[in-house]
């Protein structure tokens, strides 16, 4: 879908993109980086709106330097900034954008109605957009990117300014753009955590340089940590502690501390399970103590841990772990 080779963009005082080489296939791809990392610059180059200083880029097999018009025919774009005229309604605006993309009047009206329904705008679509909430405006911006039925959409920070519920709804919509319509998505964000749930592939850039590009499952691959939750019993009023003692005696390595489990079902123990024999041992020990086994699951990495644990096994050689990431409660990539 997108390929770049040693792509650079230099402004007089800043290098926004620094020899970036990427190969992005179909599906939902996240482009994550702090403010100023170069995400918007990258999108403008991919749309053929801003020339690269050096290197090359192709979108849908078309060269951005020479085929910008043809790229924009097949690609939708949701800009980061607020760009909606306040005095017109969502319907009028999206119909206008559809006509600009070359759709005949009837098709433009039909596609507008379908697209606005998809993004969850109903009666409001006839009201002037000046009175819309941020969430409604973001939905209109998404709708106008989709209305001409592109093969790929480039979404620049679509969750900006949204509260957690609005963010979840927007991420769900973005996921469905791919699963329901087969339109590939490149979505930028400075929030690592939200990409974990939404994207098949994640590209991380910092200061215009590539930090890492891998499938989300590589980022979140399983660990050897096993989480075990058991019920209490009359004989063992603290089932988790009884299990901890029995497993320690059996030679299993347990992590310090417990996590809260389901109400009434005790706590969750975390232990090292290098092989299947540990699973069998846990099951038999739980049964031997007469406890109920509520859950036994392998823990997965979270994307943010890539930045907090120094796990760089698949990182590019130039990887720098952004130090402040550890302090970001919301798992945000730090602002530079
Ligand atoms: N037209 C321009 N002239 C000079 N510098 C620019 C220009 N556009 C972007 N930059 C600089 O290039 C760098 C990358 O900017 P860019 O907007 O691509 O980052 P970003 O990752 O999209 O961040 P944000 O989410 O804050 O927009 C920044 O340092 C920015 O100040």
TrEMBL record:
Region described as Disordered: spans on this chain: 307-336
Extent of Low complexity compositional bias: 312-326
PROSITE patterns: ABC_TRANSPORTER_2 (PS50893)
MF GO annotations: ATP binding; ATP hydrolysis activity
Positions with biased composition (Basic and acidic residues): 327-336
Residue span, ABC transporter domain: 2-232
Protein's UniProt keywords contain Cytoplasm: no
InterPro entries associated with the record: AAA+_ATPase (IPR003593), ABC_transporter-like_ATP-bd (IPR003439), P-loop_NTPase (IPR027417)
Domain of life where this protein originates: Bacteria
This protein's UniProt keywords: ATP-binding, Nucleotide-binding, Transport
Pfam families (UniProt xref): ABC_tran
Similarity section: Belongs to the ABC transporter superfamily.
The protein's name: ABC transporter ATP-binding protein
């Amino acid at each position: 879908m997108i390929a770049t080779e040693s792509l650079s963009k230099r402004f007089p005082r800043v290098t926004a993109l620094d020899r970036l080489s990427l190969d992005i296939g179909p599906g939902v791809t996240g482009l994550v980086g702090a403010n100023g990392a170069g995400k918007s610059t990258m999108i403008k180059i991919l749309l053929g709106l801003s020339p690269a200083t050096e290197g090359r880029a192709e979108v849908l097999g078309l060269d951005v330097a020479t085929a910008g018009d043809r790229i924009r025919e097949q690609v939708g774009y949701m800009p980061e900034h607020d760009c909606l005229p306040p005095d017109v309604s969502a319907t009028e605006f999206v119909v206008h954008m559809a006509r600009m993309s070359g759709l005949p009047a009837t098709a433009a009206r039909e596609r507008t109605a379908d697209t606005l329904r998809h993004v969850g705008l109903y009666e409001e679509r006839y009201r002037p957009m000046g009175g819309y909430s941020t969430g409604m405006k973001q939905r209109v911006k998404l709708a106008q990117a989709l209305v001409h039925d592109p093969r790929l959409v480039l979404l620049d920070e679509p969750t900006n300014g949204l509260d957690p519920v609005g963010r979840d709804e927007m991420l769900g919509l973005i996921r469905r753009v791919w699963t329901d319509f087969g339109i590939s998505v490149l979505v930028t964000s400075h929030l690592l955590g939200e990409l974990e749930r939404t994207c098949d592939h994640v590209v991380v850039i910092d200061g215009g340089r590539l930090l890492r590009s891998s499938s989300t499952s590589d980022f979140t691959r399983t660990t050897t940590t096993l989480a075990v939750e058991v019920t209490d019993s009359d004989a063992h009023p603290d089932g988790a502690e009884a299990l901890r003692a029995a497993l320690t005696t059996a030679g299993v390595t347990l992590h310090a501390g417990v996590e809260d489990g389901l109400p009434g079902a005790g706590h969750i123990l975390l232990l090292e399970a290098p092989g299947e024999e540990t699973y069998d041992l846990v099951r038999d020990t739980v049964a031997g103590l007469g406890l109920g086994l509520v859950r036994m699951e392998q823990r997965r990495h979270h994307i943010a841990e890539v930045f907090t644990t120094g796990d760089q096994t698949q990182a590019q050689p130039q990887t720098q772990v952004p130090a402040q990431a550890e302090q970001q409660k919301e798992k945000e990539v730090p602002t530079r």
